Amino acid sequence: MFKKGYLSILSLVMGFTFFSTNTFAATDIVDNDALSSAPGYSEQKGNWTYKTGSGYYNDYRIVSATVNGFDTDYAYIWRFYAHDKNAAHYVYLNNKDFTNPRTAYQIDEFGGIVYINQNTAPGGWNFLKTHKEWNHMIVINTSLTTKLGNVGADATKITY
Ligand SMILES: [Ca+2]
């Protein structure tokens, strides 16, 4: 009886130790049109159409990559409040109307560009890149995005 209880406490301590040293313990999700309670905020440049009925939290933004001014005047930006993390960056894609074949995602300020085919991306969280610097963000860079189909903006997340 005593031994059994002792072992349970030992397992519990080992469990806590495991979780506290897990480097990917936190997840911050910032959606399009993020709520004020989100662990970051989202911004848009240009006229992205707001739609519901699909997507993470049942909404998303979409724009044609061939719309006038797309290259120069459009962007979608997700910013995270977390700083200086070795963070894995992800974008959520699960929408048949997202058809752009080469969407350029800028990682943080200095993390470079990752290209995703929104048309063929698997439904759900798509990994972009792990990168560490003070400010964390994901930005759709329209200048580097191929001018075909529709570009969608839904949720993003970082884990660290
Ligand atoms: Ca959404």
Automatic annotation (TrEMBL):
UniProt entry keywords in alphabetical sequence: Signal
Domain of life: Bacteria
Signal peptide extent: 1-25
Name of the protein in question: DUF2712 domain-containing protein
Organism the protein comes from: Parageobacillus thermoglucosidasius
